[in-house]
Design brief:
alpha+beta, 3 strands, 22% strand
Amino acid sequence: MKTSSKQWKMGTYMPTKHEYAASKWCMNNNITIYPVADISGKWYIEINISGKKNKSPSLYGKDIIWKQLHEYYAYYYDKYKK
């Protein structure tokens, strides 16, 4: 039986220096943020802080998913970095 796999395009985004530093800091401090596909072809953002997971209430399209993901990294970086 032949199966087909549908690839979903996720777009591209170039993070700023601040966003890149934020993502690196978060990953080093057990905060991971990643896209989770919805059957509609859009994406949720899941945030995992030391094993506690939360999913964004909104769905994001390919044109905004990476920007929003990096905004979450920057939020947690600015909130918790001391």
